[in-house]
Write a structure and sequence with these properties.
Radius of gyration: 13 Å
Helix content: 55-70%
CATH topology: Four Helix Bundle (Hemerythrin (Met), subunit A)
Structural class: mainly alpha
Number of helices: 6
Distance between the termini: 21 Å
CATH superfamily: Fic/DOC protein, Fido domain
Number of strands: 2
């Protein structure tokens, strides 16, 4: 089984502060717990797509922060991929597009996981 390195609550809050976020409003602890509860399989890429999607999707949908949710969610998903030696193969406007799709309920969680899985690329460090 593969082990994913998750981000801490403090790391996610720091990302939000970079976007002048004014603090946590929702249940970030729940998102961390949800990511930790993923049943890990033999496909690290699939597990990472699920974990990163949890942050990207639910920070936006649940308005975890008082401000900067889309930016925080996007950067959290990107950082989570990066610390696990992957990157999302999307152009900068692709991240904006997907974040807006999430915010407008035009993409569901399962579709986001599938999209991320197809766009994750291993990075050698």
């Amino acid at each position: 089984m593969n082990k994913i390195r998750l981000l801490s609550i403090e790391e996610v809050i720091e990302i939000n502060k970079k976007f002048n976020g004014s603090g946590k409003r929702g249940d970030l602890d729940f998102l961390i717990s949800r990511a930790k509860s993923i049943k890990l399989g033999d496909d690290l890429k699939k597990d990472l797509a699920k974990a990163a999607s949890i942050f990207w999707y639910y920070i936006i949908q649940n308005h975890i922060f008082t401000d900067g949710n889309k930016r925080t969610a996007t950067e959290t998903a990107k950082l989570l991929c990066n610390v696990n030696n992957f990157e999302l193969d999307l152009p900068p406007n692709g991240f904006i597009y997907i974040s807006l799709k999430i915010a407008n309920n035009d993409i569901n969680f399962r579709n986001l996981v599938e999209l991320m899985y197809t766009r994750l690329r291993r990075v050698e460090k």
